[in-house]
Design goal:
This protein is mainly α. The chain is elongated and about 55 Å long.
Length: about 220
């Protein structure tokens, strides 16, 4: 660790336990509200869900953009944790992939696209580092299943993440109020299509996360 890094770390104030709990509640409440209603929900509603006052939000986050930045980090970190845990704890590699996919759905990863399109700095070092960790974790999970001959080899991490995003994307204001109970059912149908032997030849080429990030 460099002297500059140590100085930067020591300059960051340590939050008291109660302040840290408030910060975590705010991020959790913001993620919940965004999933339900989109990223432009009033901060008053986020404060109400978190059980704090509006002033508490502004003590932790300078504005809505910074709060959403931390929600995006939280979602990606949680999903990366799920991928790493599944690979480490499951004996069967395809079971690990299945466990990850359903766990990622429970984290409402589809809301992440809405967050990242809401004016965030996609090149922020924290976002890049967390995104890279997520990509590496999912790549390792899929690579293990491919090496065992259980996952078809003509798909990439991007293919998996596109399906997850589409199947878990929130539908604010829609009439599909009972959509969520069907998510895991349709994810299971999708997973059946990933298992070997492949029953068809896919058009195009496998999709990477880089492909998704550099779309025009």
């Amino acid at each position: 660790m460099t002297a500059d890094t140590m100085t930067a770390k020591s300059a960051q104030p340590r939050l008291r336990a109660d302040a840290l709990r408030n910060r975590e509640r705010i991020v959790a409440a913001a993620r919940e509200v965004i999933v339900e209603s989109g990223a432009h929900i009033p901060l008053d509603e986020i404060a109400r869900r978190a059980g704090v006052g509006n002033a508490t939000i502004y003590r932790h986050f300078t504005d809505r953009r910074e709060l959403i930045h931390h929600v995006a980090l939280s979602v990606m970190s949680c999903v990366a944790d799920q991928a790493e845990s599944a690979l480490a704890e499951e004996d069967d590699t395809f079971s690990a992939l299945r466990r990850f996919v359903h766990a990622a759905a429970d984290e409402h990863i589809g809301a992440l696209c809405l967050l990242l399109s809401d004016g965030l700095d996609k090149e922020h070092p924290d976002l890049i580092a967390t995104r890279d960790r997520l990509a590496d974790a999912v790549e390792a999970l899929m690579g293990a299943a491919k090496a065992d001959g259980k996952l078809r080899t003509d798909i990439g991490v991007g293919d998996l993440m596109v399906a997850l995003n589409q199947l878990t994307r929130p539908l604010p204001g829609s009439a599909c109020v009972d959509f969520e109970p069907f998510v895991h059912r349709h994810l299971q149908l999708f997973l059946d299509g990933l298992h070997t032997p492949a029953r068809s030849e896919l058009p195009g080429k496998s999709v990477t996360l880089e492909d998704l990030q550099h779309r025009p």
